[in-house]
Design a protein that fits this description.
elongated; mainly alpha; 7 helices
Length: 172
């Protein structure tokens, strides 16, 4: 793709990415507050899957924010944008790996699909963008929507799981 066509294509996607970044920032802030109010339960040794879920969900929101920021860089070439997306995906993968601290939480089907799988797919799309292929733009948007749905669903499930633990604790 020639530089002028690339610049025009990038510009057409910038408005959407502003919105995605705003949604990611808003929801990550709400998740941060919810986790802060329930920190003892989420960080307890008895429920490591809660901590893994919280970290993964937060990483998903942050990934969306980072990609949105990368789309706002003026006169960015395809390679730089693609490599930024790859870098953000690798950071999310590493964060997901380290935050799960081994054990069954790391290898849960949710963490494999919604963590490792999702972040790896975003990294692959980053390579497609870096190669200058226009197909990377709609693929990345598709993954952004999937990431957003996954993160919102995971955040809701996290709050429900924390609520069950707190009700059980109150009963005993």
């Amino acid at each position: 793709m020639d530089p002028q066509t690339y610049a025009q294509t990038l510009q057409t996607w910038q408005g959407l990415w502003v919105l995605v970044g705003e949604v990611g920032a808003t929801l990550s802030g709400l998740l941060f507050v919810a986790v802060s109010f329930n920190l003892r339960t989420i960080m307890s040794a008895e429920r490591p899957e809660l901590r893994t879920s919280a970290f993964r969900t937060f990483s998903q929101f942050v990934l969306l924010i980072e990609i949105a920021i990368a789309f706002q860089i003026p006169q960015e070439d395809p390679f730089a944008l693609g490599m930024a997306v790859v870098f953000f995906a690798v950071v999310a993968l590493i964060t997901n790996w380290l935050s799960s601290k081994g054990g069954r939480a790391r290898w849960s089907k949710e963490n494999i699909l919604l963590g490792f799988g999702l972040f790896s797919a975003v990294g692959i799309i980053g390579v497609i963008l870096a190669a200058g292929l226009q197909a990377g733009f709609p693929l990345l948007v598709m993954m952004a929507f999937f990431t957003l749905i996954s993160a919102v669903t995971s955040a809701w499930q996290l709050l429900l799981d924390v609520g069950v633990d707190e009700v059980d604790t109150a009963r005993t």
